[in-house]
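The records we work with from here on pair a chain with its fold. The integers have meaning only within a learned vocabulary of local backbone shapes. A complete example follows; check for yourself that the lines match position by position.

:::
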Amino acid sequence: LAGQAHDDLFLLGVSDTMKSDGPNGVVTLEGECRNDVWALGNIVDLSGQVRDHARFLARTVTVSGSIARGALLMGSAVHLTKTSRLDGDAWLMGENLIAEGTVQGRLTMMGQNVTLAGTFATNVHVMAQDIVVLPGTKIAGNLVYRSATELILDKDVKLGGQLIREPMPAS
């Protein structure tokens, strides 16, 4: 989608084979969506703007554009690039999660491997086996995490609140 969508948008990227590579099942959002967007596909790539909520489910989700309100992003790999901007609360779920962009609302991440490298205006909640917070990351609120290992922050991470470790859920 390279133009404008004025109403809610429901997109399904259909694959004609079971292969995970190539152009099959790709949903590309380059334009402006003025209301909610629901996208399901092998790959969902947002480089445009969503002026309301976004709900994406794909093997690979990449956001390099903006989402004005809440975002629910699920996939094997979910990547908020350096140019991404999420103005509402965001939930990222999947195996490999990377947040390099800007999130103005609360950020909740649940995955196997989580990397934080962006700017976060309020609290960040992470539950993961492996958590990496890169130098230069800015979190204005608390960083609350659940992990089997203790998280040690680099001196160049700016944390406005507290680093809080919560116990892992009982099996």
Remarks:
- The two ends are 43 Å apart (CA to CA).
- The longest strand covers residues 37-46.
- The chain has a mean pLDDT of 93.
- DSSP finds no helices and 19 strands in the chain.
